[in-house]
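Figure caption, in words: inputs first, then the predicted bound structure.
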Amino acid sequence: MRLLLVEDEPTLADSIRRGLEAEGMSVDHELDGQDGLWRAREGEYDAIVLDIMLPGLNGYEICRQLREDEVWTPVLMLTAKDGEYDEADAFDLGADDYLRKPFSFVVLVARIRALVRRGLTARPSTLTHADLTFDPASMRCQRGDTSIELTQREGAVLETLLRRSPNVVPKHELLDSVWGMDFEGDPNIVEVYVGYVRRKIDRPFETKTVKTVRGLGYQIAAAT
Ligand code: CA
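Bound structure (calcium ion present):
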């Protein structure tokens, strides 16, 4: 497993690197944001561990630029508790997971392994179902010829449902994938957002896309 670590605190970076190497992973390390972005674009990595506050270019910007260039290497962001940014921003900009500092090393290793397992398939840029198309990178969403404006969060909900289609996505999995595993707010936020998505992609149209599977979750699937 080959990883890129972009972290500007030398002591922390060094201990992460040595710890990951002890787990049998091979780690390239950059201290600076610009160098980190360059390496992330050029190298073949299984995952990228990205600090947010970095000299040169911050982690959010690195992540956004990678996704814009269609580099889909899984990204785990390291966020500081009282950081300038919200964790939600990390997901909106294309990160796959985040870990709040200070974190336990065991958790870091587990999260990296989970990301690499999930991240093996390349993501198609446009997701479709019947007359619905959605491109998560550009946030372009259409039903037939009608353009639909989605917020980042609504887009993330729709993206998760489309990627898993025709499987049913349990509510808690939607919560983990859109709001992150450390989300501590009200889990009913999932229903609220599925409602927002439906209002935009289904209400004005004849056929309904997002189904509720009672007691299980939500599903986008062909009519049976
Ligand atoms: Ca930093």
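Residues 2-118 form a domain with the Rossmann fold fold (CATH 3.40.50.2300).
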